[in-house]
Amino acid sequence: MAEEQKKEPRISTISSTFKLWLVAIIFFLTFFHLYAIYNYPQTRIISNEVLLGLVLTLVGYLWIQELRDRERLQAINLALIKAQRQLEHAEIDTIAALILAEEAKDPYVRGHSKRVTRCAVELAQELGFSQEQRKTIERAGILHDIGKIGISDAILRKPDKLNEEEWTVIKKHPRRAAEILEPLSFLTKEKEMICHHHERFDGKGYPDGLKAEEIPLGARILAVVDSFDAMNSERPYRKPLAEDAIISELKSACGNQLDPGVVTAFLGLLKKKPSLWEREG
Ligand SMILES: [Fe+2]
Question: Active site residue: 148, 172, 189, 272, which one?
Answer without folding.
Answer: 148
